[in-house]
Amino acid sequence: SSTQNYTCPHHLYRVQIFSEDPLIIYIPEFITPAEAAHLQEVSQSTLEYSQIADQTGQQGLARTRTSKSTSLQSDEVVRCIEQRALAFQGYDTRRERLEPLQAVQYEIGQKYSPHTDWFSSPAQTTSEFGGNRATSFFVYVAADSDIVGGGTAFPLLNAPVDERWCEYINCDESWDDGVTFRPIPRNAVFWKNMKSGRGDRRTLHAGLPVQRGNKLGMNIWTRESDLDIKYRSDVI
Ligand SMILES: O=C(O)CCC(=O)C(=O)O
Ligand SMILES: [Fe+2]
User: Fold this and answer.
1) pTM of the model
2) Which domain holds residue 152?
3) How many domains are there within the chain?
4) For each successive 10 residues of the chain (236 residues), what is the average pLDDT?
């Protein structure tokens, strides 16, 4: 098949430190237009109403997360993005620490209420799961050009002062509301969830309700150590 012959595109992206503590890095054009189109295509047929894990680790539907989502099979294109996400974190970050990439789609009215990506319940951070989620990337894969809402809000962060950030964050909101990244296709926000081995509360964030249009995002989560093979994505 074409899988053997596919080579990852040479893709340059920019990086910008948004915050040193907690570490948050803004990444314009993290994925290529072709990758974005591919992700849109492969996610459509398997999207289902999102589930979240409760205190016992049991997955279930919740009013706090009304989007649709799906795990992505690690095909040749997804693999390039996985490799990019690993290289970004230092070459020593093993592939075994990655959860399957997760696409998330929001239609009008859909949202994800404030939450952290790190877990506080031990059932979700066992060694089979590779411990807690060390880092997160949230990638905006696609968004309608006239989208209203659908930003990613970090209510506990300090808003930056320099106006050049207004290209990426919503500068209309008040300073004490924290920071809201706008859903700009192909851009990504990366952050560290843990600080000194504990979940960092300042990484609290929400997918704000989409008020007009559609948004497709993607989570790339890296655990503290290797996940058991049954929780990793199948390599095609
Ligand atoms: O939709 C967003 O902007 C954020 C989604 C999110 O935080 C998540 O899926 O964990
Ligand atoms: Fe999240």
Assistant:
1) 0.95
2) 13-225
3) 1
4) 76 97 98 98 90 80 87 95 97 94 96 96 96 98 97 97 96 91 98 97 98 98 97 79
* Ligand 1: lining residues by beta carbon, under 6 Å: 104, 112, 117, 138, 152, 205, 207, 217, 219
In a domain, 231, yes or no: no
Within-domain flag for 156: yes
For ligand 1, the distance from its centroid to the CA atom of residue 115, given in whole angstroms, is 9
ipTM of the complex: 0.99
Would residue 121 count as lying in a domain? yes
Identify whether 2 is part of a domain.
no
Residue 154, beta-bridge partner list: 179
Residue of 24, 49, 52, 104 with the most ligand 1 atoms within 8 Å of its CB, for mutation: 104
pLDDT of residue 4: 66
Q: What is the per-residue pLDDT for 124?
A: 95
Residue 104's CATH number: 2.60.120.620
Q: What's the confidence (pLDDT) of residue 63?
A: 83
